[in-house]
Amino acid sequence: MRYISTRGAAPVLDFEQVTLAGLGNDGGLYLPEAWPSLSAEEIGGLRGLSYVDTAVAVMAPFVEGTLTREELRSLCVQAYGRFAHAAVTPLVQLDQRHWLLELFHGPTLAFKDVALQLLGLLFERFLAGTDKHLTVVGATSGDTGSAAIDALAGRSGVDVFMLHPKGRVSDVQRRQMTTVLAPNIHNIAIEGSFDDAQALVKAMFNDPGFSGKFALSAVNSINWARLMAQVVYYFYAAVRLGAPERPVAFSVPTGNFGDVFAGYVAAKMGLPVAKLVVATNVNDILHRALSAGDYSQGTVVPTPSPSMDIQVSSNFERLLFDLGGRDGAATAEQMRGFEATRAMRLTNAQREGASRLFASDRIDLDDMALAMRWACDGAGQVIDPHTAIGLAAARRADLPMDVPIVTLATAHPAKFGDAVERATGVRPALPARIGDLFDREERYATLPGTFEAVTGYIAERAVARP
To answer: Which residue intervals define the domain Threonine synthase N-terminal in the entry (predicted)?
Structure first.
C-alpha cells in the first residue's frame, strides 16, 4: 500500500513512513493511493469475530508491505487489551431503530483511545533498533491529548508536546493530560482557541527551519494511521446490525471531520452505509459546507461540548481531494485560497459527491440537553454532550424507518459531569480506575499562542535530529 498527499507534491510513502511523518511536507494530508475493498462475502465473514480479529481483517490492506497479519494482530491484542469492556466498542440499543456505539471504554474514556493505543505501539515498533527520535506535536480540543499522552508516556524514542486551549477543555480532560508526569510528556496551555493551537501545529510542520531541526510527527487525525484504526468500528457495528445485507446509518458528532471520514473510508471499502450524519454544535462550519457549500471560518463559540468547538476541520481536505477527482494541484490551490481568505466554496462535483453519502445538522444547546434527557429517561442511558449532539441529529435525520441509526458515543459522561448533571439531574461518577484524578499533581506550561513562544519552548526540550 502506497500513500499520496492531498496536495500532490509530497513524496509517495509506505505505511511505516506515513505513520512516522504525519503531515505531508507540502502541507497536505496523506491517504491511500487507491481504496482497498472488501467483498460482501468478506464483510459477512466478520460476523461473530472479536474486535481484534475484525481490526486485523479491516486494516490488513492498509499495512500491506509493512506488517504481516500476525504482526498486526499482536499489536491489536496489546492495544485493545487495556479496554474495560470485552467487546471493546459495544452496541447499546435505545429504541427500535436507534443505537449507541460506545467508544469510551479505553484508558482515557474517549473514542480517541481506539486509535491512539494502536498508534503508540506502531511508533514504538517503527522506532525500535533505530537512532530516530520523534518529536510528536499535537493540538487537542480535549480528548486527543489525554489519549495520546496515555499511549506514549514513558515510551523510548518519543517526546510529546501537546497544546490545548487554556480554559476551554473540561477539568477532567485537562487533568488527564497534566497529571501524567512522565519525563517525555510536555503539556502546553496556550492563550487562544483550538483552531489557534491546530494552526500552530501545522505551521511547525510547514516551517523548514523548525521541521528541519526535529523529526516531527503527529497524533492528531491528520495522521493516517489514526484514521485507519477508526474505520474498524464502523464494520464491527454494522455487521452486528445486518450488514452487508442491510444498510446501516451512522450519526457522528464531529468537529475536525476525522471520525466521520473514517466512516467514509468504510463506505469506500464496500460497507453498505445508508448515510453518514455529520452532527455539529453551533460551531457549524461542516454543516454549512455540506448543506450549502459554504466552508468559511467563523468565530469559535465555547460550548459544553468543547471537543467540537472548532471552525477549521483539518480532515475535510481529505474529502475534498477524493471528491474532486484526486487532483492534488487543484486541492492545493483550493486550500491556499482558504488559508488566505478563511473562506471557500465547494465545487459542484464536491457538493454532489458529498450529498450521496452525507447529511448534516446543527444542534443548539437546548436540543443537546433534550437529547440527553431523552436518552436518560427513555432508555436509561446517561450520555455526554458530544454524544447528545450526535443523537439529536440522528433523531431528526430523514431516513427510512427500516434503517438502523448508530450514534457514535464518543466520551464517557463523567468527563463532562457538570453539563450532564445540568441536563439530566444525574451526576455521573468517574470509573474507579481514574477515581483519584483530582488528587493527582498537575504539571503544564502556559504560553502565548504565538509561533515564536511555542517553538522556542519546544526547541529547548526536544531532541534534535542527529
So the answer is: 2-80
Q: Please count the residues of the chain.
A: 466
Q: Write down the architecture of domain 87-106+225-424 according to CATH.
A: 3-Layer(aba) Sandwich (3.40)
Intra-chain end-to-end CA distance of the chain, in Å: 29
**Distance (Å, whole) CA 223 – CA 190:** 22
Cell matching residue 243: 450488514
Give the other-Cβ count within 10 Å of 148's Cβ: 30
Distance CA 407, CA 389 (A): 9
Give tens-digit pLDDT for 52-88: 999 999 999 999 999 999 999 999 999 999 999 999 9
Compute the distance between CA of residue 329 and CA of residue 314 in angstroms, rounded to an integer: 18
For 378-412, write each residue's pLDDT tens digit: 999 999 999 999 999 999 999 999 999 999 999 99
CA 442 to each of CA 164, 183, 438, 452: distance values in angstroms, whole numbers, following the listed order: 14, 13, 9, 25
Active-site residues: which are they? Answer: 112
Q: In the Cβ-directed half-sphere of 161, how many Cα atoms lie within 13 Å?
A: 27
pLDDT at 55 (0 to 100):
98
Identity (one letter) of the amino acid at 421?
E
Q: What is the pLDDT of residues 320-340, one digit of tens each?
A: 999 999 999 999 999 999 999
Greatest pairwise CA separation for the chain in angstroms: 60
Q: Answer whether 108's CB lies under 8 Å from 146's CB.
A: yes
Pairing state between β 405-409 and 98-102:
parallel
Nearest to 156, CA basis, from 128, 136, 186: 128
* Count of CB atoms situated within 10 Å of the CB of 71: 13
Q: Which of 67, 213, 221 is nearest to 139 (CA)?
A: 221
Strands 215-217, 294-296: pairing kind: unpaired
| Closest by Cα among 275, 288, 276 to 344 | 288
